[in-house]
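Dear all,

This email documents one entry for the complex benchmark we are building for the journal club exercise. For each entry we list the sequence lines for every component of the assembly. Then comes the predicted three-dimensional structure of the complex as a token string, followed by one or two observations. Please use this as the template for your own entries, and keep the labels exactly as they appear.
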Amino acid sequence: MVETFLSNPDFIKWAFFAGKILLLFGLAFGVVAPVMIWVERRVAGLIQDRYGPNRVGPFGLLQSLADGIKLLLKEDLRPTEIRPVFYLLAPILSVIPAAMAFAVIPFGPPTTLGGLLPTPMRLQIAELNVGLVYVLAISSLSVYAIALAGWASNNKFSVLGSLRASAQMISYELAAGLAIVSVILLSGSVDLMAIAQSQTEMWNIFPGFLAFLVFLPAIFAETNRTPFDLPEAEAELVVGYHTEYSGIKFGLFFLAEYVNMATVSALCILFFFGGWEFLPWLSWEKIGVDLNTFWFIPTIWFFTKIAAFLFFFVWVRWTLPRFRYDQLMSIGWKTLIPIALLNILITTTYLVFEKAS
Amino acid sequence: MLQQSLFIIMAALVLLTAGLVAFRPRPIESAMWLILNFFFTAGLYVLLGSHFVAVIQILVYAGAIMVLFVFVILLLNLDPKELGDETSLHWSSVVMFVGMLSFLLLILHVAGPQTLEPMEGLLPDSKFGSVEALAQKLLTDYVWGFELAGVILLLAIVGVGMLAYRKPKPKTPKFLDHQERPV
Amino acid sequence: MFLSEYLGVAVLLILGLLAGCGAVAAAWLFGAKRYYPNKTSAYECGIPSEGAENERFSVRFYLVAVSFILFDIETIFLVPWALGFRGFLDNGHGLYIWTVGLVFLAVLTLGLVYEWRKGLLDWNT
């Protein structure tokens, strides 16, 4: 009787759904953030020719756990000047878009999990056919957390930092959106699964190289990473919009930032680097890998690419100096947006030529 | 059935949040309730099968226009004491009003004939609210509207320029000619 | 597309909300609360706060927000255009769709150039 219950297609569907959500949410919030903290500090040490944390656990691997426990047990500081409701709301508002954004990211081709599932199912939590625009919409909500955090702190530096961070984020969202328009031109779909599947012959980075050059700074600025991290730079604005946050509330901002980094890296890979395809000219099918039995290979390859991208984020952080705020804004509006507009023109020309040949 | 109950819940929440927007004393709180209102309106669009419009509602309204509103409210930085302590209407009366309205709607729905037919736009393989369907219509039948929208946006940009243009002040030189400059 | 696809979105929203609220609640539960004026006053590099509380801010933030709305809407309009481009190209109406897009882009580039020349994109933004 247990076998019939377990093989009931409805149960399998819901179990798969629950499994997807738990796995991805757990990975994003339980693995990416702690591992990224460790990677960040060790790679920082590597680049700066020193040791990173290496005391807590082998190679300092338990450092993130120690940090998490410390943040939990820190004093629940409530400065007198804050506006209480929004002070508490802002960290929660920063976690929610981070959590919602990766609902539409596919982590592999539709698969039957090696025969467990009756029909091939997508490795996507929500198979929206407007997935791409959904991701844009959710990322545009992450501005509120920053704006409210700075304002609620009622600290002059926080307000200034949060306004600057918000203005920066919305300016670079435009550049990212226009770069994405050329990806839509190339892939012909707004569904993220279809975009990934359209790159089996050739990755989008080749015709869309200019779009990638626009998209990359845009995602660095969206996640407030160096060289665009002036709003949270310690030397400039006393940590900016999260000055008055300590303990786990600061931890939530941090967590949301790392999860956003992972989501945006996954997006960049889906748009330009072929998603889970093996090499720019070779897909797994071409090599002859049997995706029915080895269904996990594209997924693992995708995660590897995300990891490489996250390493790239950290590498850039410890290599480049940060931009001054007016340089930052003028890059966003006067350089990236015109290049993105020009690129749309170039991409349409490329498509016409591709059709003609 | 699921559709109808979801619709009633969403509609009630839209009304509730709209009431809260109007009756709360602090502008930033009203702004937050308005954002929530846009989310539930997007939910209503989803129930109509217009998925693209729902996502755009969130992107443009909740993600861009409300950002402007929030910026303005934060920049104005009104003193809470200036705003007054309470509104003329207590929040409980608003909640009761909306609750009664929703209850009335529920009664009407249960008692009235079942005229809601299942929407074909919500069937699994329907292309109704997708971007492709919109693109087809927009670029053939309504292409002049498409271009006109661009012109209207241009007008808005010009309007912003006129609102905010300040003549650049002539720069006074740091050192006047007769002063000694440091070497 | 199924309506039930949004269930995943809703579940993630609730999970994110729970994680956030849980963390804030954990801070309230586990954190000490030893407040004294030096600690709880607004942080200004250790010195007591000076300067007015409500300073005036530059209007450029408002300009950035409004320009963002307008160009965001432009991007939204470009999404269906980009989606339909290939289809029209395959049907032989490539020139038509290209012109439609070009006119729209030209109108908005004009807007960008106008803002640039007027100096609205300068210094802060």
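Observations: The longest helix of chain B spans residues 51-76. Chain B has a mean pLDDT of 81.
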